[in-house]
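TL;DR need structure tokens for one chain.
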Amino acid sequence: MNARLNVSDRCDVGSSGSSPEGLRPLTIGNVEIGFPVVQAALSGYSDLPMRVIARRHGASYSVCEVMLDQFLLSLTKRQKTKHFLDIAEEEHPVGGQLMGAEPEQFSLGAMKLVEAGFDVIDVNFGCPVKKVLGRCRGGFHLSQPSVAIDILKRTRDIVPDEIPVTVKMRRGIDDSDEARDQFFEILDGAMDAGLAAATVHGRTVVQRYIGPSRWEFLSEVTRHVEGRGFKILGSGDLFTAEDCLNMIRQTGVDGVTVARGAIGNPWIFQQARRLADGLELSPPPTLREQADVMRTHFDLCEQTYTVERAPLLMRKFCIKYSQNHPRYEEVRLSFSRLKTRADFENAVAEHYSVDGPGRYIPRELHGSQEEG
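>> reply
TL;DR here they are.
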């Protein structure tokens, strides 16, 4: 798989040093990330093709879609499942994210990600999906600090010292005082266990994606860890390049992870780099630029999953890409019927053959894709 992906195709945009915005290059443990706007884990989305496209458009780091510990321990090299652990050479550094219920299984699952070659192991204590919570996984762990800390300790102990371990959290299971105390107990436990960073989403687990993300809570978290050498990445309501830089500037986080705002919009990373370098925001991608990226994404999907499986998997991505088109509703309808590569090419020929300006995605179109 790796041999077919060309490192030279990556867009080399922006700098990884300090900028007029005063951004500091991000490091996680001993892993140098660089530009502190990165791609988050997204269930059902942040697979190898999406991560590579993001990388080529300026994302300095990305995290794979979350995987269950039980799934990892039973994973085989069959064509239908092997892609979960595929990594392209050009996407390093890349994080592998893990979710589960039992501390012992959790740590064994982490080793599967290490063996696959992920540069950072991320523990998911943030997923708010009901079926996940009902099985005592994801965000459920925020309600049981002792188990959560045990998982973090065991994971840190089994993962080689040179590979950083991080944790993804929400600001609590709910907005109660008890939930707040539990959050900080787990955060302190993560630092004591030797973790390198935490990604903190400004919503509660109960809140899911309803209502605004509380960025002021991120400010409180950064003050709490000050002087500990522990990095905080912010998450929540990052849909534009301006949002990304505003969160860093307003909250003091060390970096931000773009989730829903990056689906069908890899240009957000280039745009953030331009703003950080003191340049004007570039125009949205033209129709021809959009078509070129979608076609490359489709090629990567075929290489990763097989020609037969790629069209159905690409349907959801093409629908998201269509949000950049001025005639979104019409284009979306064409992609919603996508079943073959020919269907894709026909839709592109109909809606993208004549070049023209694109648009920035309206904020109201960002739905509720699951963040890992």
